[in-house]
Amino acid sequence: MKPLVYIESEKCTNCYTCVRICPVKAIQARPDSTHPDLINERCIGCGACIDSCAPKAISYRSSIEDARRMLAGRIKKAAIVSPSIAAEFADITDYRKFVQMIRSLGIHYVHEMAFGVDLIANRYMTFYSDFKGRYSISSCDPVVVSYIEKYHPNLINNLVPFVSPMVAMAKVVRKCHKENLMVIYIGPNIASKDEILLYDDDGKIDCALTYPELRQLFEEFNINENTVEFSDFDPPFAFKGSLYPLRNGLMQASDIDENLLTSHVICVEGKNAMIESIEEFEENVKIIHRHLHVMYGSALTGPGLSRRGNKLLKEYQVIKYANDRLKRFFRAEWYDDLEEYGQLNFKRTFTPNDKRIPEPEKERIKEALKTLGKQPGDAVNCNQCGYHSCREFAVDMAKGIVIPEMCATYTIKHTKTFNETLSELNEKLARTRQELREAKDQIKTEHHSAYQASELTNAMLNKLRAGIVIVDFKLKIVKANDTFCRIIGEEAEEIIEVIPDLAGADLRKFIPEDISKLFSYVISNSEAIESRDVIHNGNLLNLSIFPIISGQIAGGIVRDMQAPEVQKAEVIRRVSDVIDKNLEMVQQILLGEGASDIEKMLNSVIKFYDKDSNTHSGTNNK
């Protein structure tokens, strides 16, 4: 079941009107919420938020589906109708047409709630006449009862302990027909939808419809005044109970003295009057010495009616309707009915359901005032936030149920600050955009220069007579020049035509494992290997490997030792090495040490010359 009142967040525009108007702060604006939150257990069902919401984002629980199921069932149905029909259906010329329209929905019995009002009014008269020193609060309005149970639970024992006229009439209907019935209540008070859930005995009501919902059913069933005949309510008939929608209607029905000089009952109606009078009753009843009769005032102006406003006109229509009903009134018959049904049990109890939020600490209130830019002694109190004073607003802000943005002066001040900050940010953004454009141009220039440098480097690498290769720690080739591919074999030359620089190729596919391990050693140990002679494909190569990025990348220089230009340069280098070594190690030679090293160097020189001689002899012979 949906809550009685709920917010459709997709329609909400965050105007916070509902937060301001709720008399019990059941709708809260919190910093961590995108939209106002309706706390259902705090709600009293007055519907003030529904009427105040311009975008129609707040609705009450519909009973249309429940009514459709009941009307389609085989069990007989009885309807109880509030006397406020006169204010709602002023477009219907005769109330008897209205009664027949209800019957046309498939309802067997149609009763006016006004007789239930007479029964409760009679109980009130007896109750007030038997005064025993305790002043009481009477109300048949479920909104008022809920307000006292939740926000003034100390006054529970002061509530007059009788059911509402709606429940009283349900008891009458069930006794009158003495059969299994589905009972539907039709009235203007949306809080009745929750009130009917409290009773599961002879006062049970199965469905509560508002007037807009009833109009919707009339439209669905294609029922209007022009298609029906006259039909009156089913008995028992009422006396002055038809005045119930008026502020003092119940007092009129009970014939309680309303003389200002002698009456012991004060009648109040309206949201502010309800709150103020109950608070004052709690504080000053020992001085006032009066009973209090309270109505919230939804009977003629609440969301359960189709038409809003024109309260005076509606009051006139109710009075006129009551007079029309009295033309067919028979007092003797009414007395008999009053005595017969007056034997029913109309007592009820009330349950404290304290929903008051504890008062915050003074320091938190001071912090809230400081946030609003106010001091405890300030007296701005513009009332635009819906509160009587800035301090009252700060108290609820400290409770966490409102946000500072609801304060007009706070919003104006911070809007100005925001605009100034926004202006500064726009200027900074403009400067940043200019810097970005300049940086973009610079990057573009640098990218072009880098591209040219890369092209130049590649050209230079490919012009070198030595093979160059750069590999990563997985022995994947990062870059290799054409000479490297030519030295290590045809397969590499074919691949480089497809994959530039052999990028991404596995080095181990082109060289033996013992040579690839040298690269792994240099990368792992960050230690260079210089001028190492290796054999690959029957050719003598000279290999130097050096770390470029420790543990990540290494470079290798490969020279084909059989190339003529390499041979001559290598002979000169190695002879020079022999001479240098000889000068440094004369003493060791004389002592017989280091001879083997020199012998190796000389043998390598001889080897080069022998190869060179054989090569040239073969050429000449050819």
Could you please describe the fold and organization of this structure?
This protein folds into six domains: 1-61, Alpha-Beta Plaits (2-Layer Sandwich), CATH 3.30.70.20; 63-131 and 161-247 and 304-341, Rossmann fold (3-Layer(aba) Sandwich); 362-403, no CATH class; 407-456; 464-561, PAS domain (Beta-Lactamase); 567-621, no CATH class. It is built from 24 helices and 16 strands. It has helices spanning 17-21, 48-52, 64-72, 85-88, 95-103, 114-129, 142-151, 165-177, 192-195, 211-220, 249-254, 271-288, 298-301, 311-326, 331-341, 362-371, 390-399, 408-463, 482-488, 490-498, 513-525, 564-584, 586-590, 595-621; strands at 5-7, 27-28, 37-38, 58-60, 76-81, 109-112, 137-138, 181-186, 207-209, 265-269, 291-295, 467-472, 477-480, 529-536, 539-549, 553-560. The strands form five sheets. A five-stranded antiparallel β-sheet has the order 13-12-16-15-14. β8, α9 (192-195) and β9 (207-209) form a beta-alpha-beta unit. The chain starts with a strand and ends with a helix.
